[in-house]
Amino acid sequence: MNAKRIFQLAGLSGALAVGLGAFGAHGLEALLIQNGRVDTFQTAVNYHFYHTLALFGIGIVAALKPEWKGIAFAARCMILGILIFSGSLYVLSLSGITWLGAITPLGGLAFILGWSSIAYFSFKNC
User: Terminus of the chain with fewer CB atoms < 10 Å: N or C?
Assistant: First the structure.
């Protein structure tokens, strides 16, 4: 995965985070209140944004340091974390399917692996 692809995915992820955040605050508010999941949905949006920004930062590193081939692994971890962590919380918030909360930590592990790999590649390459 090259810098261009990482930037493209960060842009799409950021747009999706804004859209879901706005839609959750306005169009889905009644459903989220009914399901008792306003805070859960907000957590999903927050982590989606945080890790989209991390993905953007990884894209900057990939553009400035193309020799850091392994940095794409960190990008994949962030994307996987967004999909599993935030995705499971989005679906849980809207559907009330509580067992989805059991897979959310797997997304958290992907985030941890992504952040750890950033540290690893910086130690290895700097």
Answer: C
SS3 label, residue 27: coil
Cα torsion angle, 19, 36, 87, 121, sign: positive
pLDDT at 98: 85
Q: How many domains does the chain have?
A: 1
CB 62 within 8 A of CB 118: no
Residues 39-82 have pLDDT tens digits of: 999 999 999 999 999 999 999 999 999 888 789 999 999 999 99
Domain membership of residue 17 as a residue range: 3-125
Closest CA to 51 of 18, 93, 14: 14
Provide the H-helix boundaries in 26-103: 29-35, 38-64, 71-81, 87-95
